[in-house]
From TrEMBL:
<keyword id="KW-0414">Isoprene biosynthesis</keyword>
<dbReference type="Pfam" id="PF22691">
    <property type="entry name" value="Thiolase_C_1"/>
</dbReference>
<keyword id="KW-0808">Transferase</keyword>
<protein>
    <submittedName>
        <fullName>Acetyl-CoA acetyltransferase</fullName>
    </submittedName>
</protein>
<dbReference type="GO" id="GO:0016747">
    <property type="term" value="F:acyltransferase activity, transferring groups other than amino-acyl groups"/>
</dbReference>
<feature type="domain" description="Thiolase C-terminal">
    <location>
        <begin position="242"/>
        <end position="378"/>
    </location>
</feature>
<dbReference type="GO" id="GO:0008299">
    <property type="term" value="P:isoprenoid biosynthetic process"/>
</dbReference>
<dbReference type="InterPro" id="IPR002155">
    <property type="entry name" value="Thiolase"/>
</dbReference>
<dbReference type="InterPro" id="IPR055140">
    <property type="entry name" value="Thiolase_C_2"/>
</dbReference>
<dbReference type="InterPro" id="IPR016039">
    <property type="entry name" value="Thiolase-like"/>
</dbReference>
């Protein structure tokens, strides 16, 4: 059961990563109504360069515990990238049920600005730190000039268009729906409503992806506390869960328009879901998940978006707070953004973007280098 959560996001945070993390931890503890001494479990993650620009943090969980002053009976590092936050909550609940911990704190985030100033992304971090490896095959594979993952997802979008006849306008409609949702979200960085023409008129970054289809990396943290009983929040439980991990790199994949979500979402019923929070590093990422979780047939995710209302007021609410496309992507991981939005919805706290009567929310995270991981999570109140 999630007993507390909090977040803080900045385009650029001037203090240290640890200072920002500590502020968010304090806020989450306040919501949960507990103190640091009550925490006996910790799960966390980070990506190279996102903790004050360093290539590596030695004994990372120890560094966090030393700074926060947290002891623990249960510690775990979750290295899934984007969906790590979702996996953390599931593992925390299992640890509590097993008697390994009482209150587990889950920390995801960092500073994306330190990486951004180098003119790269985390998935091309080897260009800034030559001793960092991206794949076991870097000598053969990492020889091209790219801005991965932007260039990779651009290839996926172009492949999708070629195979299934999807259009730029269909992808752009996803950005339009999400911006509408963000327009009422006080936490959103981008709130001005847009049209399909605005998306397609924004600069092309990697053909066919335009600027308004691509997430902006920011500084920030999301912290979630899992315990036995919530004092100040609704009783939100895990109603369904799945994860899938693919090992083949894109060049070896039979078809690049599929994601592991096609496996992680198996067995989770969608017919009673009130809102969908889908990983949105790019518009095409959302489109792929719409197809792979079963909302639409493969190849028709863009059509579903263009022909339906995906706003928080619509018939298929998707990314009801605006998603990472409008809130930013803290430290190149969006899982915290979509998980927090789900919790806001289920606690009736989504001021300005609340889905009426939301009782069940489906969340899907995609992460790792080039869609290696997927975690599907269904949250709601057990009956």
């Amino acid at each position: 059961m999630i007993t507390g959560f909090s977040s803080k996001i900045f385009k650029k945070y001037e203090g240290s990563t640890f200072e920002l993390m500590a502020d968010v931890v304090d806020d989450a503890l306040h919501v949960a109504g507990i103190e640091k001494k009550d925490i006996d479990g910790l799960l966390a993650t980070y990506l190279t360069g996102t903790f004050d620009g360093k290539a590596h943090n030695h004994f990372f969980l120890d560094e966090i515990r030393q700074y926060l002053g947290i002891r623990g009976n249960f510690l775990e590092f979750v290295d899934f990238g984007g969906p790590s936050a979702l996996a953390m909550v599931y593992r925390a609940e299992k640890a509590i049920k097993a008697g390994d911990a009482t209150n587990v704190i889950c920390i995801v985030g960092g500073k994306g600005s330190d990486v951004r100033t180098k003119g790269i992304t985390v998935d091309s971090i080897d260009k800034a730190f030559p001793d960092v490896a991206i794949t076991p095959f870097d000598n053969y594979f990492r020889v091209y000039d790219d801005l991965n993952p932007v260039t990779d997802y651009a290839l996926v979008a172009e492949r999708h268009k070629h195979l299934y006849g999807s259009t730029d306008e269909e992808r752009a409609s996803i950005a339009v729906h999400q911006r509408y949702n963000a327009s009422g979200n006080e936490k959103a960085l981008y709130k001005e409503k847009i049209k399909v023409e605005d998306v397609l008129g924004s600069p092309a970054v990697a053909d066919p992806l335009h600027l308004l289809e691509i997430v902006y990396p920011v500084d920030g943290f999301h912290v979630f506390i899992v315990g036995k009983r919530a004092k100040n929040l609704n009783d939100v439980d895990i109603l369904g869960y799945g994860e899938a991990h693919w090992s083949d790199i894109p060049a070896e994949r039979e078809e690049i328009t599929f994601t592991p979500a096609i496996e992680s979402s198996k067995g989770i019923e969608l017919n009673k879901v009130d809102a969908f929070e889908l990983y949105d590093s790019f518009t095409v990422t959302v489109m792929l998940q719409i197809e792979d979780i079963g909302l639409a047939e493969k190849g028709k995710g863009g059509k579903l978006s263009a022909e339906n209302d995906l706003t928080y007021k619509g018939n298929i609410p998707v990314n009801t707070g605006g998603g990472s496309l409008n809130l930013g992507q803290p430290a190149y991981m969006s899982g915290g953004v979509i998980l927090e939005e789900a919790l806001l919805q289920l606690n009736g706290m989504a001021k300005g973007h609340q889905v009426e009567g939301a009782k069940t929310v489906f969340i899907n995270g995609i992460g790792g280098w080039n869609r290696s991981h997927s975690v599907s999570l269904l949250l709601g109140e057990k009956k």
